[in-house]
Amino acid sequence: MATRLRKGSHVEWETSQGKTRGKVERKLTSDTTIKGHHVAASPESPQYLVVSDKTGAKAAHRADALKRVDGSS
To answer: Which residues are in the Hypervirulence associated protein TUDOR domain (predicted)?
Structure first.
């Protein structure tokens, strides 16, 4: 992703139900577990913890899976 993501960036991503929008909560640079799922993140291959605007659910995504939405910080 050409645009740098940071905490508060408003983004959208694809789900099985269609596009979802939310905000970046933080950048993940080490392995972690979210909702019972292992997230393989590292400084060389970071992922971003995002929170859905609609449901408040948290998920981790690679930067290339996220599209910044206009009006983001």
So the answer is: 8-66
